[in-house]
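Kindly review this protein for my students:
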Amino acid sequence: MAVASRQNSRSPIVAIVGRPNVGKSSLFNRLIGTRQAITHDQPGTTRDANYAQVDWRNFHFTLVDTAGLSKEGGEIELQAQDQIKEMASSAQVLLVVVDAATMITSDDQAAARLALKSGKPVILVLGKFDTAAAAQTDHWRRLGIQTIIGVSAIHGSGTGDLLDAITSQIEAMPAPAQNPPLRLALIGRPNVGKSSLLNSMVGKQKAVVSAIPGTTRDVATETIKYHGREIELLDTAGIRRRGKIERGVEKFSALRTLSAIADADVAVLVMDASEGHVAGDMNLAGQIIDAGKGLILAMNKWDIVDKDEHTQDRLSVRIKNDFQFAWWAPLVFTSATHGANVNRLMELCVQIEERRNTQIPTGPFNRLIERLVEKQPPAGLKGRLPKINYGTQTGTNPPTFTFFATYPDLIHFGYRRYLENNLRSEWNFTGTPIRLEFRHKHGDNVRRGKDHKKS
């Protein structure tokens, strides 16, 4: 299963709900084809919602993994329960996940009631199905959910049937256009000037602008042309710090904003230059990178900042230091009110799209790898020495490179960063994350995204 590279900005939302520790995050990782959600035997590991775009047989949807539904827990857990309820109201399909090898619990019953009460299509997923006997699964029908599918997230069995069941409840997407619009999402906290930037880009008043945070509730879209390239602008609701997000409409808006990140090609992280950046901005940047999207950092409202000839340089150094994990993202100082550097955002967006589609020939790529390995080979552990044999580019949007090696799991994070930095030095990937994957040289690691099995 591959993460879809280009989706409709209104792609359906499919939410995974259920009590803690039944394998929701493992199922999420299996369906999207990568280890994005943290999995752990300790109940309650997932607290924030994880999301990703999924493509299955010309159907596309946003898959959302939620925290476990339970009546027990402290304040953070209670906030997570509110999140699940709001997600159930905004999703098009609900997956209620249970542990097939156990008996029905009160939390399982609560999850089923919540899902059925929403009036949305509901699928009961019998997780860990490989550990359950057939006779143990009949009692799950008492939950009142008609569609029941057994899966093993570890082995992949049943996931094809599950995806077929999901897509039977949503509309197929039309075939992509030959040259679809480039999607640029404006992301940021409330009242940083996202809607004003949209209006400045469009050249007229399209989005409602107000000093009151939260004026934008849903994802507003507007299509423009820049030097002949069609760009679809996505103006999103501001995402506040988790504990500050109110129940109801605001949580729905935040979910739509996260979905817009998954739909976009490039995201502009808009920050308020008069207030400075905060931890929430860095968290949003991390989510954009995790989604594999292009990233531009924009310090807006630059016109109202008291400054001298060194102010911009000092602030640039501070931002680059705090955003070291995204050092490759271009930084732009903008003023939506005066239109300063607004065109620069669109120019960068087009350039980043080109870099995201960069194809590196295998020959030059391997010659670079040989030089890097000869200069600094990867370190070993307890007599086991990793050796990179060869590599190749295996994807674009974002550029993805696969290295075949002995003991690939022992290749340290620092060495991976060494390879990435040198790749970026050799080829221009400014504005886009790149992904490095490491597999055994004999190919005994199943290719990511191709390991679905039908039960």
